[in-house]
């Protein structure tokens, strides 16, 4: 794939992100090219920037994103060009011990490749145009004009949802609503207290309301 674009690259912890020209690498059969239209700044990104969460560098951060599908690999059937998608940072193999038990967040393949900051197929999907390898945070690397993800990571959504809202679903909303519905298991008439109402806390409030909390 002969694609060059700009991305915000972190070369070293506790230094500013640098706008760099990057080039996409080989495009796989299960890959989806997404033009990023909006990306949230999550605390996980900030932890990599301040050095409290260590990843290989240089790296493109960003994992809470939404955009438009520009190209799909030969084996992709779930999305097509022009679809609006939310990007998932939790790809999974579907057949390991944890995937078989419905806990894909603990997928053995996911946990093995995540710290390497590569995409789910084990490859880096871009490199610095001036030379040098490039890593991607949490299988996405959305702080750029484009990113390449596996087909299972591109989740189609209605074109009526604004991108700056849709992107938040990929991490903050999913985390907060999921905590309320799946972890706390809130039920009708329950009384709920949420401590801290940032992006995740507000989403937990919404999740509690969806569950019927009083």
Structural overview:
With 214 residues, the protein is α+β, with helices and mostly antiparallel strands. The protein has four helices and ten strands. The chain has helices spanning 43-50, 108-113, 163-183, 199-210, and strands at residues 4-10, 18-24, 31-40, 59-60, 64-72, 84-87, 126-128, 135-136, 146-150, 154-156. It has a five-stranded mixed β-sheet with strand order 7-2-1-4-8, with no helix packed on it. Strands 9-3-5-6-10 form a five-stranded antiparallel β-sheet. The longest helix is centred in the last third of the chain and has 21 residues, at 163-183. The protein is globular.
Q: Roughly what percent helix?
A: 10-25%
Strand content: 15-25%
Gyration radius, in Å: 18 Å
- Round the mean pLDDT to the nearest integer and report it: 95
What would a concise description of this structure say?
The protein is an alpha+beta fold and 214 residues long.
What is the topology?
Elements (H helix, E strand, L loop, with lengths): L3 E7 L7 E7 L6 E10 L2 H8 L8 E2 L3 E9 L11 E4 L20 H6 L12 E3 L6 E2 L9 E5 L3 E3 L6 H21 L15 H12 L4
Parallel strand pairs: 4-8
Antiparallel strand pairs: 1-2, 1-4, 2-7, 3-5, 3-9, 5-6, 6-10
Considering the chains and any ligands shown, give keywords for the structure:
214 residues; alpha+beta; 5-stranded mixed sheet; 5-stranded antiparallel sheet; 4 helices; 22% helix; globular
